[in-house]
Amino acid sequence: MKLKDGISLDGIRPEMTWAIPYVENCFVEFGYDLEITCTTGSHTGIDPHVYGFAIDCHTIGIPDDTQERLAQNIQSAIGPNYFVQHERRETKIVNGKTVITKEQHIHVQYRKDLWRAIVRSEGIQI
């Protein structure tokens, strides 16, 4: 496993720390190395990344159909308390040019109702 430059695991919750080896094993089974591209940074508001309950995994260069199967395998490996999604690249046109607004990746998070309950139990209003 490697981390994208500038990314750290600081602030990641134990629920995600537990899941990362399973995610990595799935990448290795498919013949790829796991690179975590986002943890707690670059998100705002009520987002699981902000609270340490999500990671994003690099998939550029992995065929789309393989990314879908990889996301499904990760979901099976870590179970129903997690949500795994293959997110596709999003673009928009700005001043006549195509701008990437979100790069493709696999998003892995602790299930929404579970992470929100933990955050609320800590006295944080969301």
Describe the structure.
- The protein has 126 residues and is an alpha+beta fold.
- The chain has one domain (2-121): 2-Layer Sandwich (Muramoyl-pentapeptide Carboxypeptidase, domain 2), CATH 3.30.1380.
- The chain is 33% helix and 27% strand.
- The strands form two sheets. A five-stranded mixed sheet has the order 1-2-3-7-4. Strands 5-6 form a two-stranded antiparallel ribbon.
- Strand 5 (90-94) and strand 6 form a beta hairpin.
- Helix 1 crosses helix 2 (64-78).
- The longest helix has 16 residues, at 14-29.
Report a brief summary of the structure.
Helix content is 33%, strand content 27%. By secondary structure, the protein is α+β, with helices and mostly antiparallel strands.
Radius of gyration: 15 Å
Query: What's the CATH topology label?
Result: Muramoyl-pentapeptide Carboxypeptidase, domain 2
What percent of the residues sit in helical stretches (DSSP H or I)? 25-40%
Name of the level-1 CATH class? Alpha Beta
The number of helices is 3
Give the terminus-to-terminus CA distance. 32 Å
Shape: globular
List the domain count as a whole number: 1
User: Main β-sheet: number of strands, strand sense, barrel status?
Assistant: 5 strands, mixed
Summing up helix and strand content along with how strands pair, one would put the structural category as alpha+beta
Q: Residue-averaged pLDDT, rounded?
A: 91
Order of neighbouring strands in the sheet with most strands: 1-2-3-7-4
Strand portion, in percent? 25-35%
Low-confidence stretches: none
Number of strands: 7
Helix and strand run: EHEEHEEEEH
